[in-house]
Design a protein that fits this description.
The protein is mainly α. It has one domain: CDP-alcohol phosphotransferase transmembrane (TM) domain (Four Helix Bundle (Hemerythrin (Met), subunit A)), CATH 1.20.120.1760. The protein has helices at 3-25, 29-48, 52-75, 81-106, 112-137, 149-161, 165-194. The protein is globular. The two termini are 29 Å apart.
Length: 196
């Protein structure tokens, strides 16, 4: 069993008990995506005002909604291309919002190192997503890598919950860029195999 299968298995175990209930409620996958966005914006505000524990909890709850929207779409057979684009867009906005909330909290403290780390994490996170999107636009699959969005959300939420944000940011910087390299190497090998 590889990392992708482990992720899918865990996501299925988390979402499976809930999607049946949600499917009967009439709520749409896109509505869950927008709830996820709203929760992340609230979490960003809460973090910016220094309430890190509550912010960490909200980040985890929003992460659950991020899992549920796709699971509900698959369960109800309502997957659409627009839904996938909306989900990806909301993921990028949500991640940026949380990191901007942290940035707003750190700026008055003059915490230069943390501010730099936040920018590096933001760039790395966007690169991880961009590489996959660009690869898929060229007809390649690219889901490899240690730190996809779920792992980034979990590490950041734990850092907030236990008030160890600096350590969480350091972990994210290292593993986000490991993931960037993993994806580039994987795609390079695919290009060599296919002769592209």
């Amino acid at each position: 069993m590889n990392l992708i299968d482990i992720r899918r298995n865990l996501a299925y175990r988390i979402t499976n008990p809930v999607v049946g209930i949600l499917s009967k409620s009439g709520i749409t996958p896109n509505a869950l995506t927008l709830i996820n966005l709203a929760l992340n914006i609230i979490a960003a505000y809460v973090i910016a005002t220094g309430h890190l524990l509550i912010g960490g909890g909200l980040v985890l709850v929003s992460g659950l909604f991020d899992l549920l929207d796709g699971a509900l779409a698959r369960f109800t057979k309502k997957t659409t291309k627009f839904g996938a684009i909306l989900d990806s867009t909301v993921d990028r906005i949500s991640e940026a919002a949380i990191l901007c909330g942290l940035l707003i909290w750190y700026i008055p403290q003059g915490a230069s190192l943390e501010i730099v780390l936040i920018f590096v994490v933001l760039i790395g996170s966007f690169l991880v997503s961009y590489i996959r999107a660009r690869a898929e636009g060229l007809g390649w699959q690219c889901q490899v890598g240690l730190f996809n969005r779920a792992e980034r959300v979990i590490v950041l939420a734990i850092g907030l919950l236990i008030n160890q944000i600096f350590i969480a940011l350091c972990v994210l910087v290292v593993f986000v860029f490991i993931t960037v390299v993993q994806r580039l190497v994987y795609l390079w090998k695919q290009g060599e195999i296919k002769g592209d």
